[in-house]
Amino acid sequence: MDRRTFVKAGCIGSASLLMEGLNPMVRADVPPAEVPPIELHGLPDYKASPLGMPGLFPGRVIEVRDPNAIVRNRISQPIVRHMLEHAMTELTGEKSAQAAWAKFVEPNDIVGIKINPSGAPACCSSPEILREIIGAVQSAGVPVRSILIYDRYSYEMDIGSYQTLLPPGVRIVGIQDAFVDSSGYDPNLYCAANFFGEWETRSYMANIVAQVVTKIINVPTMKDHSAAGVTGALKNLAYGTFNNVARSHRAPYSFTNPLIGLMCTVEPLRSKAVLHIMDGMRQVWHGGPLTQVQDFIDQPGILLVATDPVALDTIELEAIEKKRVERGAPSLWQHDANSITTNNDEFFHDASKNLFFRQPGHIAAAGKLGLGVADLKQIDHRPLLA
Amino acid sequence: MMMTIKETAKPKTPDDWPTLLKDNARTGGQGQHPARSPEGAVWRLRTGSSVRSAPILDDGVLYVTSVNGVLHAIDVVTGTSKWKFQAAGQVHSTPSLSGDRILFGCDDGKVYAVDRHAGSKLWEAPTEAEVWASPVVRSGVVFFGSADARVYAVDAASGRTRWVQELAGRIYSTIYAAEHQLYVGCGDGKVYSLDASSGKILWSTLTGNGIDSSPAVAGDLVLIGSEDFWFYALNTSTGEVRWKYETGLGIASSPAVSGDMAVIGSKDGFLYALETQTGRLRWKTGVGEVVTAPPVFGDGVVCIQAGGTFSLDSATGNVVWRAALAGAIQSVPVLAGDTIYLTSLSSEVYALR
After folding, report:
1. Closest partner CB to B345 (pick from A2, A11, A164)
2. Under DSSP, is residue A378 helix (H, G, I), strand (E, B) or coil?
């Protein structure tokens, strides 16, 4: 069992998750009949921003690759800087990176950088990429004190050592300190649904998203996900903004489809998420999102940039599916009961096993909600060498 | 008015543990504590919030900070609270004892001094960002780093600032205070040595990434880990790299030193025992969890909180016992006689015997 799993399952997770309504590893006795009604309560009368998802460049995904960006699991700061500048100018058509960033952030913005520290330290949003994003946001005139790095669980951020590794002045915020801590959430903004008979049927939006930041730069990682199929831009935003989301899984079933996409449509989350920078320095093709098993983590040295999270996640899904095929692992779309295990350790060490029937269809479902382009033929995917 | 400061961070009795890793030399619980497995919990106390820091022990009272900003004074016989002090922000800092003062840093940017008997505030020293490092006391001066990238020296009696030295990165590393020199790691990737009386930078040595780890000193070597995956031994006078040892991932843990051996944990899930003079590996043991907390020596054992709590034979690295409790980020067991005190992410404080 990896450390985070231990912490969650052995120390605080299982009891606290039960207090929240559901331990996701409790097995369902019978398959759920169908998706229950899901109520969405966003900010009323919120004026949607044209920068909001799918943003300024629907269907466009810039992929920059440099094999030297990560060598022996260390990331090169100068190469990442060049990759990000290249990607941003290509995405926007601007001549300079500074002009490209100015399309998304203004000096009076409070910029939240939503990271993905789950899976730290093996695979999480890289501090090297975050440093470059912070510098770029500052170059657009945003003071360092107006930049926040955030995620749901502060202890996961601690394991990633973000506090130490990021520049002085940037605020680093864990929305909740423990699983049962709901003080960082807005009681008026929520998604409500009863998936498996849980007693707490609401998932509340984080205050930091609802009230503090004016723009969000989303920095997901490139990982398979035992329940959602992959975790990318959409899931990092949805399940990192709303609390009490583990209740959408009850092994081996999961309602990540359609919950992930629906959550991303809730205002002001949808309008504030203006840019998605996927950290593909490392790529987890099995055991995600929490694995620490290096056998399933490649180091392709990729950066993907888009304003359209659906198109971005579609490209990610294709990449991880391709990798699994290369390695002889079952498709992310496979729904074979024989591949399901209840043994976490078996799952973490055997790529043919899984804990849930994965739901990669959550990406296409988000496309149908207007969050972006899910059809590969319609996606303007631009692979570049740095 | 002249105030008398008792010298601190020196245990009055073998069981006292007044600062991180017991004393300023970070010796841990060597020479007095059994390797046998504890049979069970004598008591358990819930603090109401996660504990990210390590406890300290003095004169039968355990002092614990919890993330919700509370300093707890706990009677070690009964496991009951004697008093609580509420700070104005979250607390991740391990407390330290200076005379009758309990010192700790806070996310509100202050270091607080609290009367150990009454639980009331004596003074506070401001910085401009959170203080997660543990304040270290030597010769009546409190030294600590802040996330505002500065090292502070304040008077232990009054909290008045003696000097401030600006570095180039956030500081979460707890300072090692030798007689004339301070050693500290920094988020800018450098290990610094400062003059203890003025704060002047004596030398700095660059590593390949930021530093969470807190240094230890063994002879003429400063020992410290870096997020660049390497464990360094630097000359105390010059900062020259004498040797370095590569682990599998970043190092946030701090070294424990016993005789000619240092033990360090890595985020790769292993504890490494290295000879201090050469860097030669004596043993390497996986604990199956990411290690970010410092290990601590007991009598013939090394204890580490990494998910659960482990005790390893210090000669071989073999696991002697393990307990599936007290998951931790930076907590360290306090080994006191036949009792082990543990704090955990899940808010509990345990006394095991």
Report:
1. A11
2. helix
Beta carbons of B344 and A122 less than 8 Å apart: no
Which residue, B53, B114, B42, is CA-closest to B80? B42
Cα separations (Å) of B34 from B10, B11, B237, B262? 22, 19, 37, 20
Contact at CB, B68 and A158, closer than 8 angstroms: no
d(CA B132, CA A318): 42
Residue-wise pLDDT for A256-313, tens only, equals 999 999 999 999 999 999 999 999 999 999 999 999 999 999 999 999 999 999 999 9
Find residues 3-32 of chain A whose CB sits inside 8 Å of chain B: 3-4, 6-7, 10-12, 15
Chain B CB contacts of A174 under 8 Å are none
Q: At what angle are helices A77-92 and A127-139 packed, to 10 degrees?
A: 50
Q: Is A39 exposed, middle or buried (0-12, 13-18, 19+ CB in 10 A)?
A: exposed
CATH number belonging to the domain at A3-26+49-385, selected among 3.30.1130.10, 1.10.3860.10, 3.20.20.80, 3.40.50.11440: 3.40.50.11440
Q: Tell if the CB–CB gap between B307 and A6 is shorter than 8 Å.
A: yes
d(CA A161, CA A101): 26
Predicted confidence at residue B337, as pLDDT, reads 82
Residue A308, helix vs strand vs coil: coil
Q: Does domain B41-352 have CATH number 1.10.10.10?
A: no
Q: Across the interface, do A177 and B228 touch by the CB < 8 Å criterion?
A: no
Tokens describing residue A358: 């994965």
- Amino acid code (one letter) for B291: V
Reading chain B (353 residues) residue by residue, the pLDDT tens digits are 333 334 446 666 767 777 777 777 777 766 555 557 788 899 999 998 889 899 999 999 999 999 999 999 999 999 999 999 999 999 999 999 999 999 999 999 999 999 999 999 999 999 999 999 999 999 999 999 999 999 999 999 999 999 999 999 999 999 999 999 999 999 999 999 999 999 999 999 999 999 999 999 999 999 999 999 999 999 999 999 999 999 999 999 999 999 999 999 999 999 999 999 999 999 999 998 899 999 999 889 999 999 889 999 999 999 999 888 767 677 888 988 889 999 988 889 999 98
Q: Percent helix, strand, coil in chain B (nearest 5)?
A: 0, 45, 55
pLDDT at B66: 94
**CB proximity A1 to B under 8 Å:** yes
Question: What's the gap in Å between the CA of B96 and the closest CA on chain A?
Answer: 22
Residues A360, B119: Cα–Cα separation, whole Å: 55
**Per-residue three-class SS string for B57-85:** EECCEEEEEECCCEEEEEECCCCCEEEEE
Residue whose entry in the numeric block shows the structure tokens 């799918």: A54
Among the partner-chain residues A165, A169, A178, the one whose CB lies closest to the CB of B209 is A165
Q: Which residue is closest to A158 within chain B, CA to CA?
A: B329
On chain B, the residues whose CB falls within 8 A of the CB of A147 are none
Nearest-Cα distance to chain A for B272, in Å, is 18
Nearest of A219, A181, A214 to residue A306 by alpha carbon: A219
Interface probe for B, chosen from A1, A5, A11, A290 (most Cβ of B below 10 Å), is: A11
Give CA–CA dist B298/A215, Å, rounded: 51
ipTM of this complex prediction, to 2 decimal places: 0.90
Calculate how close chain A gets to B210, using CA atoms only, in Å.
5
> Looking at the partner chain, which of A6, A163, A177 has a beta carbon nearest the beta carbon of B147?
A163
Lookup: tokens for A162: 């973000």
Q: Which of residues 117 through 136 in chain B touch A, CB cutoff 8 A? A: 129, 132
Chain-centre distance for alpha carbon A319: 16
| Residue ranges covered by each domain of chain A | 3-26+49-385
**How, if at all, do strands A202-206 and A185-192 pair?**
antiparallel
B328 touches chain A (CB under 8 A): no
